[in-house]
Amino acid sequence: MKYILLIGFFLVAVSATPLEIAEDEEGQQYYMVPLSRVRRSETRGVVNERGVGVSHQGNIFNSGGHRLDGSAYANKNFGSHGLRPDAAGGRLDYSHGSKTSAFAGADHVRGYGTDVGAGVRHNIYSSKNFNVDAGANYGRHFGGPGGTGRPQMGGFIRGSGKF
């Protein structure tokens, strides 16, 4: 009896789904099923002979041409002591259309310090055959055996063209 009810439920659900029928130039008909867009995210876990690791990346928001993606990871070696991860880090990536993008991230390895970085890029001019970009970046190492390093900063203007 429960199988009959289950099959009946599926038949009702399938028949209630709105379908659009499209026809091509040759008269072939196709059912157009509406698809919903979902946020894309992915979580991975790895176990190998050296240790375990987990990572996650996904879209935080995507609205009005603004997109923010994030990622994070943590790794633990089998030979190390304690429960804290041996390496961990994360990154945020922002983009606004095809003109502007930025990132910020940090990576920490226990006993060796933390690397921090950020950058931005903006498309100043774009045409069919020529592009000009400008950008800047920053990076610095904190802690570890070598101590805190000096900040590393830079900027660029880059042009490319098709001749």
UniProtKB/TrEMBL annotation:
Belongs to the attacin/sarcotoxin-2 family. This is Attacin C-terminal domain-containing protein. Its main location: secreted. One of its GO terms (cellular component) is extracellular region. Keywords: Antibiotic, Antimicrobial, Immunity, Innate immunity, Secreted, Signal. Residues 1-16 form the signal peptide. Residues 143-163 are annotated as: Disordered. Residues 52-163 form the Attacin C-terminal domain. It is found in: Secreted. It holds the Pfam family Attacin_C. One of its GO terms (biological process) is innate immune response.
